[in-house]
From TrEMBL:
The lineage of its organism: Bacteria, Candidatus Nomuraibacteriota. NCBIfam families: glut_race. This is Glutamate racemase. SUPFAM superfamilies: Aspartate/glutamate racemase. Pathway: Cell wall biogenesis; peptidoglycan biosynthesis. Keywords: Cell shape, Cell wall biogenesis/degradation, Isomerase, Peptidoglycan synthesis. Its EC number is 5.1.1.3. Substrate binds at D22, S23, Y54, G55, N87, T88, T197, H198. InterPro entries: Asp/Glu/hydantoin_racemase (IPR015942), Asp/Glu_race (IPR001920), Glu_race (IPR004391). The keyword ATP-binding does not apply. It comes from Candidatus Nomurabacteria bacterium RIFCSPLOWO2_01_FULL_41_12.
Length: 276
């Protein structure tokens, strides 16, 4: 067993933190569901903003970044579990992460299954970053869940970047929605999957753009539920009386991160910069 796994096993306790990461602020949309469902857990959130966006990186680059963040979580925060709050990282590196580390890892994949189950028109759409859109994980999810369903797999550039700037409804957002969602609006689609955690913050704007005929879906609540089930099944849930705490870190500009995160979460967030 590699040393890192020995270290993880030795001191595992229920009150250890859960590591959550994304390329940037998008993962906060997953974190808020986790905090809501697991109010006694302690979290450490890392936004890898030095390398944002992840959406146009290669699989090899994404694996390297995921290893680096996970090692940081293990060595500096002694995590008991990790949630990859990023579709791009999950779709490109979850298999490699699970091979290397022995603790529980929850990933974020587009909620294609839910969309397929709910579709009456037999047409669904998914928007995601270029690296998610062309990943084998997404292709397999579509193949396994959408046998008699038409799927519009739309690769979007720059849509995560507007959210990084804290812009959820400006002219640039509208221009991008027009570019990527017009074909969805004009099709028979009745379910749109948000395949990037940044897009969850654009949900209202997207719903307004598409109108009531198309349901907009994300899997964030499901991720929180899965995390809770795993904690219970492995007897690892934190039963401390006090409310859990969250520490926030960014590998980029932590002042900017704090400002945008505070706006998105509607709470005061004070992040620290970390070089990893
Ligand atoms: N939030 C990420 C996702 O869910 C990635 C966004 C990016 O950095 O491109 O895919």
């Amino acid at each position: 067993m590699p040393n890192i796994n020995k270290k993880i096993k030795k001191n595992r306790k229920n009150n250890q933190v859960i590591g959550v990461f994304d390329s940037g602020v998008g993962g906060l949309s997953v974190l808020r569901e986790l905090q809501h469902l697991l109010p006694r857990e302690n979290f450490v959130f890392l936004a890898d903003q030095k390398y944002v966006p992840y959406g146009e990186k290669t699989k090899k680059e994404l694996i390297k970044l995921a290893y680096k963040i996970t090692d940081y979580f293990v060595n500096y925060h002694n995590i008991k579990m990790m949630v990859v709050a990023c579709n791009t990282s999950t779709c490109n590196s979850i298999g490699e992460l699970r091979k290397k580390y022995s603790f529980l890892i929850v990933g974020t994949v587009p909620a294609i299954k839910l969309a397929a189950e709910n579709s009456k028109s037999a047409t669904v759409a998914i928007i995601s970053t270029p690296s998610t859109s062309k990943s084998q994980v997404l292709k397999k999810l579509i193949k396994d869940n959408c046998q008699n369903i038409n799927v519009l797999n739309i690769s979007c550039k720059n849509l995560e970047n507007v959210v990084e700037k804290g812009k959820l409804n400006n002219a640039e957002v509208k221009r991008l929605l027009l570019k990527y969602l017009t074909e969805v609006k004009d099709s028979n689609t009745d379910q749109l999957v948000l395949g990037c955690t940044h897009y969850v913050f654009l949900k209202k704007t997207i719903e307004n753009f598409l109108g009531p005929r198309i349901r907009v879906i994300d899997g964030n609540k499901g991720i929180a539920k899965q995390t809770k089930s795993l904690l219970l099944a492995h007897l690892m849930k934190n039963n401390q009386r006090a409310k859990g705490k969250t520490l926030y870190f960014s590998t980029g500009n932590s002042v900017k991160f704090s400002k945008v995160a505070s706006k998105l979460l509607k709470i005061k967030v004070r992040a620290k910069k970390v070089a990893i």
